[in-house]
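Case study B.
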Amino acid sequence: MNRDDAEFDPPLPRPGRCPGAETLADFAAGSLPPGEAARIRSHIAACGICDSLVERLRHFDEPVGVGPPGWAATERRLRSRVFPKPRWQVILLHPAVAYGIALAAVIVAAVPGRHPASPIPPAAAAIAMESVRTIDLNVTRGVPSFAPDQSEKFLLLSFLIDIHPALHYAVSLDGSPAREVVSSDGKGNFAVLFSRAVLGAGSHRLTVIETDPRSGKTERSLEFPFQL
Amino acid sequence: MGSHQHGPLKNLADEGLVERFQATGEMMYLEELWCRHSRTVYVQCLRFLGDTAAAEDVSGDVLLKVIRGVRSQYQPAHFAGWLSTVARHECINHVQQAAERLRGGDPDDLHLAGHDDPAVAIDIDSVLSQLSTPQRIAIKLFYANRYSYEEIAKLTGWGPKEVKTHVQNGRRRFKLLWERTAQGGTHEPRRR
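Model:
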């Protein structure tokens, strides 16, 4: 660019205040009365903002193709903003609470018989605690193998899958009847507690079944093989 | 979503879902509408705004506005068309508010301005119409709206280098055409 070009200042007038969104959209759609349309046209002749908006409006209703990258995550965030969960659901779905409830339920189920009432109740913490090993099934290659430990009573199997909020999920271990599960964080992380009684040493397969509750149709079936 | 307990919502048209929501207030009807239209709204906003964060923000506003307005403002006609109109208005508002914030919230004169001399205004229009669309918009934003390159980049979604190119090429072409028009005798060539 030569010096003359750089010093040249196009003699454009200041545009004044922009029309409102409705007026501009109506102008772009050609639905304004002629007098009003002429007034807006004169403004657009000087205003880059409105010129740019009218240009963009031309393409607004063009067909929408496949979902944009990252749509699944965006959809989850938008859904939680537009349809917020009740407070009690937010608390119950918190991973720490979910783990606690699951562990307490398993312990209660595992304690044999009823104990006679003791004059001095045992410390609740002594009953409600159990060290649990977490087996992370999210490996990208091969079949993961975990060293068995015969002393442990439970194993927590964790995995991550891409979920859709409108679909339901169930897991089945080694072909056993499937049980419905809920993502611990609502984002696709799952943690399922198993008794070691059903998880002996050897090969196992956790199957995750994704179904559409409206049609009852199985959308996907994901396999997580592992070795103990 | 408990839609499986309440019959095949998928068989209902949008307008049927709206009518049922208006009658019962049950959110499952709105959630079905959400499943059908949320992606379209987001993509339209993304295409318009050119920025994923802004598109998510605005499409959330659109969908909330629709949910609030569906009982009071919506007249059963064409739901998708109404939704698209709301989305259009929200996108325009978003850009106009961003433009005003960059101006420090100080809007220009209340009247819609034009050039004093109608003949010169016609010449300017004629010259601008011969620029490419990005050049025309960039020249107006830079010289008429007085935004900086960085501000224009924010408002248009163009990269800073792209803005500079459009402004410089647009100015060069404007000058050429303007001087050519001046030789026709309508206006005096003008320099800064």
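Chain B touches chain A through 78 residues (CB under 8 Å). The remaining cases will be described in the next quarterly update.
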